[in-house]
Amino acid sequence: MRAVEIREKDTKGSPESIDPSDKDKKPDKSQQLKRVFKEYGAVGVSFHVGMSLVSLGIFYLVVSSGMDMTAILYKLGFSEAVVQSKLAAGASTFVLAYGVHKLFAPVRISITLVSVPFIVQYCRKIGFFKPPSP
C-alpha cells in the first residue's frame, strides 16, 4: 500500500501529468493582481484600495447627481412605500453606484497592474524605497 501512495505522488508532479495547454494560458486579472500584491506588498494593496474608494466615490456622485432613482425602483418592482422612504432612496443610490463600481473592476485592476510597478520603480529611484534584494 505504501508503494502505491509513493507512486501516486510521483506521477502527480511529473512533467507528463502537466497539461501542455496550461503553459499557453495567460493568467486572468485576479491572478495578476495577486502576483502584484505579493511582489509589491503594501504599495500595491494601498494603491488598489485607494483607487477603489475614489472610484466608488465618483460613481456615487454621478448616480446621485442626475439619475432618477424612483423610476428605476418602480421598474424593478418596488412598492410605492419603499420608493418614497428617505432611507431607501439613499440606499438605492449607493447600491446602484456600488453596482456600477463593480462593473468597472477590470478597469481598476488593469490600472493597478500597470501603475504599481512604475510607482515602486520611481520611489526606488528617488531613494524612498530600498532597492530589491537579490
From TrEMBL:
PANTHER family (alphabetical): PROTEIN FAM210B, MITOCHONDRIAL (PTHR21377:SF0)
Recorded GO CC terms: mitochondrion
Protein name: Protein FAM210B
Span of domain DUF1279: 31-118
Metal-binding as UniProt keyword: no
Keywords: Membrane, Transmembrane, Transmembrane helix
Basic and acidic residues bias spans: 1-13, 20-30
Region (Disordered): 1-30
InterPro entries associated with the record: FAM210A/B-like, FAM210A/B-like_dom
Membrane-spanning parts: 40-63, 103-123
